[in-house]
Amino acid sequence: MKGNLEAWYMEESEEDQRLPHHYHPPQYISLDKLAELGVLYWHLNPHCYENDEELQKIRESRGYNYMDLLDLCPGKVENYEEKLRNFFREHIHADEEIRYCLQGSGYFDVRDKDDRWIRIWIKAGDMIVLPAGIYHRFTLDTGNYVKLMRLFVGEPVWTPFNRPQEDHPSRKEYVKNLFNKAGTAVEAH
């Protein structure tokens, strides 16, 4: 099911990280462009996630056997401001990062081949997979609330490796794949 995922090149700014930071005029990015970077996307029904057959098929086909839910907003998360700062620090992971937005909204920022930021605005129903080794960060938008399903293959490892990580094995593999397989079609979206 196609959604209306919005993504755009992000203007560097010291202003509130929760603002859209569009260029003027905005420079939107297609799902195909995100797929070239290895970012996968599905739009699902967030109101029936507990019994969603499509979600179950994705989980089975990709081996996502771990799942938990995270409510991220002031008052619900211990050390909220600190956690948000940590999520917004540019980093990579050794494994995919899989997030399914059930309520609210927020931004995942990823780097393109030219090291420019692309801001991805996820809203209820949006499920994205960031490949291992991609530089990224996360923040809430001005709504200050998101409920996310976090999926993982095997036991979760939430270790961020802050930039620079050019010698990290997952980063090396990501860069190799990015430049060797540019334009390869993917199943998602």
UniProtKB/TrEMBL annotation:
GO terms for biological process: L-methionine salvage from methylthioadenosine; methionine metabolic process. Fe(2+) binds at residues 91, 93, 97, 136. Its main location: membrane. The lineage of its organism: Eukaryota, Viridiplantae, Streptophyta, Embryophyta, Tracheophyta. SUPFAM superfamilies: RmlC-like cupins. Keywords: Amino-acid biosynthesis, Cytoplasm, Dioxygenase, Iron, Metal-binding, Methionine biosynthesis, Nickel, Nucleus, Oxidoreductase. Ni(2+) binds at residues 91, 93, 97, 136. Pfam families: ARD. GO terms for cellular component: cytoplasm; nucleus; plasma membrane. This is Acireductone dioxygenase. It catalyses: 1,2-dihydroxy-5-(methylsulfanyl)pent-1-en-3-one + O2 = 3-(methylsulfanyl)propanoate + CO + formate + 2 H(+); 1,2-dihydroxy-5-(methylsulfanyl)pent-1-en-3-one + O2 = 4-methylsulfanyl-2-oxobutanoate + formate + 2 H(+). Pathway: Amino-acid biosynthesis; L-methionine biosynthesis via salvage pathway; L-methionine from S-methyl-5-thio-alpha-D-ribose 1-phosphate: step 5/6. It is a peripheral membrane protein. Binds either 1 Fe or Ni cation per monomer. Iron-binding promotes an acireductone dioxygenase reaction producing 2-keto-4-methylthiobutyrate, while nickel-binding promotes an acireductone dioxygenase reaction producing 3-(methylsulfanyl)propanoate. InterPro entries: ARD, ARD_euk, RmlC-like_jellyroll, RmlC_Cupin_sf. Its EC number is 1.13.11.54, 1.13.11.53. Belongs to the acireductone dioxygenase (ARD) family. Catalyzes 2 different reactions between oxygen and the acireductone 1,2-dihydroxy-3-keto-5-methylthiopentene (DHK-MTPene) depending upon the metal bound in the active site. Fe-containing acireductone dioxygenase (Fe-ARD) produces formate and 2-keto-4-methylthiobutyrate (KMTB), the alpha-ketoacid precursor of methionine in the methionine recycle pathway. Ni-containing acireductone dioxygenase (Ni-ARD) produces methylthiopropionate, carbon monoxide and formate, and does not lie on the methionine recycle pathway. Its cofactor is Fe(2+); Ni(2+). It is found in: Cell membrane; Cytoplasm; Nucleus. One of its GO terms (molecular function) is iron ion binding. PANTHER family: ACIREDUCTONE DIOXYGENASE (PTHR23418), ACIREDUCTONE DIOXYGENASE 4 (PTHR23418:SF4).
